[in-house]
Structures are given as structure tokens and as C-alpha cells.
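Before anything else, study the sequence and C-alpha cells given here and see whether the fold suits the sequence. Record follows:
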Amino acid sequence: MPLTKTQVAMIEATGTPNNTTFLRGDGAWGVPAGTSSGGFTAMQVFKYFSGTAAISGTTLTVSAAPVGGLSVGSIISGTGVSAGTTITAFGTGSGGVGTYTVSISQTVASRAMTSSSATFTVPAGKTAAKVTLISGGQGGQGGNGAFGGCAPAYYGGGGGASGGAAIKFISGLTPLSTVSVTLGAGGAGGGCGSAIGATGGTSSFGAYVSATSGTGVSGDINFAAISGTGGDGGDSRYVASYSGIGGCSILANYGRGGDGGSYGVNGTNGNIGVVIIEY
């Protein structure tokens, strides 16, 4: 397939790259507007979170290693948890097991809690940011086979598609304003009998940029950053003991597709999404 004009512009970007210039969405190397220091100097990372926790007063305690992690700004959900409960400070925890300060005083016994959204506060003096998004990965396909009452056609399932990726430089932000962040969960793996895995959740940064999970279509990284779509997972080997490997995203295991199940075995869940904000 020939390159589009936008892709050619990215490859033949104007300007000189170095450690204080960046490939902008218009296909040029340069310092994005609003970065008075000549580059970004800090970052905040938001991840989807799923774990066991309790709340006493304004202290949330995560008691077991979770999926994903918490950040200042993460919004907590769960049965009995007050709407809008937000992490305001770290205690002994730094994303996983430990204590955190929350915005609303309440008492909630230990139970499953999640965070699929967050609030980013634009720091004082900052008007621009580079945002990198990965959506949740698709769950792997379940294998076929005799186990669990599945149809007796012995072959493994295909791997789930990776999460989509999007990168965007954003200018014109208002210092101390807030931006809503959505964090994609990994899709559940498909059941035995060749059930297709669930699509991973979308990750987004306000209305500025979003990324969606792949569902077996070709993948891309959209540097123009309107959206990003995930890449394919591995095909089934049509042999009982083999299955497809989940598609990989651009950031290690974030957004990785779940692996397909061998015959009679469920596919694995896709990996969680992430939103990285450099400012």
C-alpha cells in the first residue's frame, strides 16, 4: 500500500530533531507552542485500575496487588463508594498496595474497586502537553475442544488485537483547568468453543484525542492523533496444543491483546490501557 501524504510528511519532517524538539502532528520537528522552557520537563501517568480496597474516612487502602495502578487524580468506583471519590495524595502506596488519601470521607468495607477515569489538572504556567494514549487490548479467542462441553474440533484460538495508539501535541491549555481522562480496560478473553474475546476499552484525553482497541483490523499509530486503532493478534495454528499470541502495542505490555486459548481453554484477557501526559 502506498504511503499517504501525511505519512510522507512525517518521514520527511522539516527541522532538526534533538532532545528539546519533537515530531509535531503537522509533520515538522519543533517545539510545541506553550513550552517556554524549550521542552517538556514532567509527566503524569494514568492507568486503568482494578483491585481490592477499603475506605475509612479519607484513607483508601489497597490490600492486594491490583491490575494497573492508581495516580493522583484517579477516580474510584465500586459498590457503596461515593460518586466522584478521587485520589488526592499518596500515603504509603505509590500506585499499588498501600494507602491513599481520597477526596470524600466515607466508610466502605474491603471489596472490588476500579478506576476507569481520572482528572488531570493542568499545572500552573503550562499551556501545552504531549499526550500518548493506549487503549485496552482485545481478549484472546477461546480454544475449541472437548473440555467443558465445547464442540470437539481440536484447535486453539487466535490472539486478541492490540490496543490502539495515539500521540498528540496539544496547545492552548488553560493553567489550573481540568481535563477528563478515560482509561481503557482490557477486554475479557473468549470462552472455549472459539468465542471471540471482548474488545478493549477506549482511552481518551478530553475531546482532544482518543485511542480504540483493535478488533482484527490493520493497526496504525496516528501521529496526527485524531485516533489510533489497534493491530491484529496472532492466528490460531489449528492444532490442539497451539494458539495465537496477542497483538503487541507500542508500549510494552500496555494494550497487549490477550493470547488465544489452547483447545478447551478460555482466551486470556487483554491488557489495560494507559494515558501518559508530558508537560
Summary: The two ends are 36 Å apart (CA to CA). Residues 168 and 225 are 5 Å apart (CA to CA). The mean pLDDT is 75.
